Amino acid sequence: MLSQQTIEIIKSTVPVLEVHGQTITSVFYKRMFEAHPELLHIFNQANQRQGKQSTALAGAVYAAAANIDQLENILPVVKQIAQKHRALQIKPEHYPIVGENLLAAIKEVLGEAATPEIMEAWRQAYGVIADVFISIEAEMYKEAEEAKGGWSGYRAFVVERKVKESEVITSFYLKPQDGGEITSYLPGQYITLRVQPEGSAYTHIRHYSLSAAPGGKVYRISVRREEAGEGKPAGVVSNYLHDQVLEGSVVDVSAPAGVFTLDQQRNTPVVLISGGVGLTPMVSMLETLLKEQPHRKVTYIHAAENGSYHAMKLYIEELEAEHEQMSSYTCYKNPLEGDSCHQTGYIDETWLRQIADPGADFYFCGPVPFMRTVYAALNQMGVPEDRIHYEFFGPAAQLQEA
């Protein structure tokens, strides 16, 4: 337990974290990787270069400091981060390394303002926060290993099929190399692939949403090829999967994880909204609703650049034709000649009001600008926060405009 004095010192640093948080976390990652280059096998270097990881960590540190006396307030965030830690195989022995370098970064950035009292308070606070994560993650590791068909660490999977879904998205059907069962998952969850492309000094780890309903004998992921552009490097793993991983290739996979899942205890109508490759968790949820909750009305809305970028278009149309409970709509930003869609340009509040039940539960996923647009439209429609559910690919960002 932290003393009241320690709690007060930590809370007094919250304004400083608002100003210097991202600088501190950027210095932290630089120090840690220089001292422990083996950790480069775990962390997404593209997110590091673009600053996404340091931004996300700064937000987490700020939230922990602001709630240091009531950490239960941020348990949902802790559990979301812990799910990713378990998928990445972050272990208790990593936490002292993180703590040492985080405290050193705070000292380096704040200079003389980081008094011995402040540093000691943060040392104690980090110990408490680390213990919370370690405890929660221990339960997650146990659950993943003991589940029917479950496993610990990484397991070898063979690419059984590789199917091109659009100009930029390809699906991979993965079966365990050992021929054993695979653990089930909740619609919306992801698996984590570990690969080492030829010529790469480090392994690369990426999360990919499962794009089919649970209950099958294989896992399906649908991966967008991430091209370079606008200051963003080409996706190392996505291009490797598209170009070098063939049917029969083997990849390492950790067990399904994630907190963005379909709530099957509710009977409300459901509206699923996806942009681009954000369709992956949405299709898993859609298939599950059609199979397991045939009484529940579901509307599926997908946005894409145009028809050539629209993955699984015919499949979704077939599902709609076969199920009375389902309706689907498409929005193309720049439709090609011959394309057929319901909306041109962007999804907006006016169109959503016409096609979506405002009393539904809304789930959405896609690029951050797309998600900001959808989130704003749902707020304008008066949809309560407890019926708005969304997923980020990569480190969490902020949907509310500053």
Low-confidence stretches: none
Beta-strand residue percentage: 15-25%
**Distance between the first and last residues' Cα:** 35 Å
Q: Just name the CATH architecture of the largest domain.
A: Orthogonal Bundle
- Classified in CATH, the superfamily of the largest domain is Globins
Rg, alpha carbons: 22 Å
Integer tally of domains: 3
Overall pLDDT, averaged?
91
User: Total number of helical segments?
Assistant: 12
CATH hierarchy, class of the largest domain: Mainly Alpha
Structural class: alpha/beta
Number of strand elements: 12
In N-to-C order, the SSE pattern is HHHHHHHEEEEEHEEHEHEEHEHE
Shape: globular
Strand order in the sheet with the most strands: 4-3-6-1-2-5
What share of residues is helical?
Answer: 40-55%
Under CATH, the topology of the largest domain is which?
Globin-like
Q: Sketch the major β-sheet.
A: 6 strands, antiparallel
